[in-house]
Amino acid sequence: MLGRGTRFGTPFEVAFPKGLMQSGPVVPDYEYNPNKNAPKVQKRDEATGLLQWKANVTDPSETNAKRASFALLFVAAVQPVPETPELVPGTDMRLIELEGLTAEPRVMGQGEFKYLGYIFRAEGYRPAVAGGKAARSDKAA
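RESULT FIELD:
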């Protein structure tokens, strides 16, 4: 039987067939502390012990507008930096592709409006290549 928090490795192209758009920078994912004067402590991934980072992303293939945008978690020792160019300079909006993507099934929603959703985690970004698109591992060299 699968336990709570089971993660499944998933190819980026399967999870996000139309890609992902990142809006905003990658920021540390801090633990909640009601004391505003206490120092902030960055969350660590339970499975790997690495630091957690987050970025807001939008999935253009999602038809439900309320589920299209979500916080993507990065699990890395250092802050991941996207290499793809901004779509509009100064907006920090860009198309991205991810490496080391995992999906964790989770019941989401409230009350009688629950649905099966996923928490997506990635190890980092795929490197950018000439032309502004990320390198795809499924193309022949």
